[in-house]
Design goal:
alpha/beta, binds pyridoxal-5'-phosphate, single chain, globular, 14 strands
Amino acid sequence: MAAMGEVIDANAFAGGPFVARFEEAYARFCETKHCVGVANGTDSLWFSLLALGVGPGHEVITAPMTFMATAEAITYAGARPVFVDIDPRTFTIDVTKIEAAITPRTKAIMPVHLFGQCADLDPIMEIARRHKLVVIEDAAQAQGALYRGRKAGSIGDAGSFSFYPGKNLGAWGEAGAVTTNDPALRERLMMFREHGQKKKYYHDVVGWNGRMDGLQGAVLSVKLKYLDQANNGRRRAAARYHELLAGVAGVSLPAEADYGRHIYHVYAIRVQQRDDLLQRLGQRGISCGIHYPVPVHLQHAYANLGYKRGDFPVSESCADTFLSLPMFPELTDLQIETVARELTSLLAAPQPVGVRSA
Ligand SMILES: Cc1ncc(COP(=O)(O)O)c(C=O)c1O
């Protein structure tokens, strides 16, 4: 509240010093040279693509098991999303399948660090360098995740973050940011978020209004101090879920790759009859989620891309079986034990086929 009061007293609502202060702190946190604060994570993806020269006639390789925004940003840059299935262990892009999707039109790879776990970035960077492609990490769900000791968002040409309120680092409204080590890219990103201008009312390119609010900059600066603690709280909760659910028949648990540190933005198990289980857990007061029920290549909005069911079997099977259990840093042991107990008892007594709960 004190930080927000300072913004109000300074009348610094759109961009300004409170955003600049957060950018400095977040670049330090991510171990990058620069951070550019923007209005949301969709803008941060879009501006990264534009600033890296992605546009009409280009293709961008990404995973279909992601939030719609990843592909939307590619479309709004004028390019075409090209999907590659995910690895069934990490739920991130399957690096063994990327090269087969590269064409002369491919300009970028956009790995998604789904649920708070990094994609396998070393082979992705190696493929990108060999084919002269840029890499934009969609790190919207991975603030503070590690890949071989390095921070998410510090390895690709650009790292894109969302600070949507539900994220591990969440604003009190909408916000996002791009991290980079390239000063020229930083300049271009700053132009795109500010109507293409470097100097007020002199527009070098057609940009957009994509500034971060001063109030969000101030809130995020305060909350950043607690991010490691919050991520540790999520890891503790995940470890307890693992202990309680290991060996429960019919449950497949999320895995942490040996190359990184997962920050469990989402703790997604895989179960059969997921929809029924979701409903019955809800009736017992345990609200779960599905991230995501329809992979992007099968979304109605992307029917024009010509993909069909069967194209990406791992993503499709995950969409049918993912169940996100309650996950936040303050989960108590009693809450975790209650979720595990109810889930286990429902799985042990499956609903007879054709019988619906009231
Ligand atoms: C993987 C992924 N990419 C992009 C976004 C877009 O971020 P925002 O909602 O801040 O626009 C999100 C967040 O919802 C996301 O989860």
